[in-house]
Design goal:
29% of the residues lie in helices and 27% in strands. It is built from six helices and nine strands. A seven-stranded mixed β-sheet has the order 5-4-3-6-7-8-9. Strand 7 and strand 8 form a beta hairpin. Helix 1 packs across helix 3 and helix 2 packs across helix 4.
């Protein structure tokens, strides 16, 4: 497929899969139109890059369905100056979408091979506002907290308290919560010492792997 064909497929994806399903934030729509999803997909699945589905990547992980990426990003409601934490770099696709919107993205991936691959792709695409770490994302990145938004791309059995503690006031944690088969996606917004939980949609993510406390 040529570059023009990929671009046409991407714009069609934004219109049919995202805008028509209720995602209306212009900055999110622009980010989804700008990021070349096919660059984050293996050659084997590249013809499906703009399909309405998640796709397999290395290490038993997935690149999320485009609509889910857009819905999670819109829920963060990020001002342009935002600092964002992503838990689960994966392919790097969601990272790129966040980098289109935020001033600084901090992303953590526990699988070093995935982190290295994502970093290579994102570097080639020219993103300069991303910092990477390999490790347990459920612990967050406290030395760079607080964050305006925290986005978790794996399913937690319960909401990780350490991530809530790293939100700034009026910041939002977007996280799938539930069992292995399917989960509920929430936006949890901080107001001082209080938190307001809003249901977004049902979803299906791989489990969040947390290392035991040391």
């Amino acid at each position: 497929m040529s570059g023009d064909a990929y671009e046409a497929a991407r714009l069609d994806m934004v219109e049919r899969q995202i805008r028509r399903r209720g995602i209306g934030e212009p900055q999110v729509l622009d980010a989804m139109a700008n990021v070349p999803r096919h660059r984050f997909v293996s050659a084997q699945h590249r013809h499906l890059s703009y399909a309405d589905s998640a796709l397999p990547i290395a290490s038993g992980q997935t690149i999320s369905q485009p609509y889910m990426v857009a819905a999670m990003t819109e829920a963060l409601d990020l001002p342009p100056h935002s600092r964002v934490l992503e838990v689960g770099t994966g392919s790097g696709y969601q990272t790129a979408v966040l980098a289109e919107l935020a001033a600084k993205v901090f992303t953590i991936e526990r699988v070093s091979a995935l982190a290295d691959s994502a970093r290579s792709i994102l570097d080639r695409l020219g993103y300069k506002n991303i910092r990477f770490r390999v490790g347990d994302g459920s612990r967050g990145w406290p030395e760079h907290a607080p964050f305006r938004g925290i986005l978790v791309t794996a399913a937690a059995a319960v909401v990780p308290e350490r991530l809530l503690e790293q939100l700034e006031d009026k910041g939002c944690l977007v996280v799938p919560v539930g069992g292995d088969s399917d989960q509920d996606l929430y936006c949890i917004k901080r107001f001082g010492r209080d938190y307001e939980r809003r249901f977004i949609t049902r979803c299906r993510f791989v489990p969040l792997v947390e290392e035991p406390p040391t």
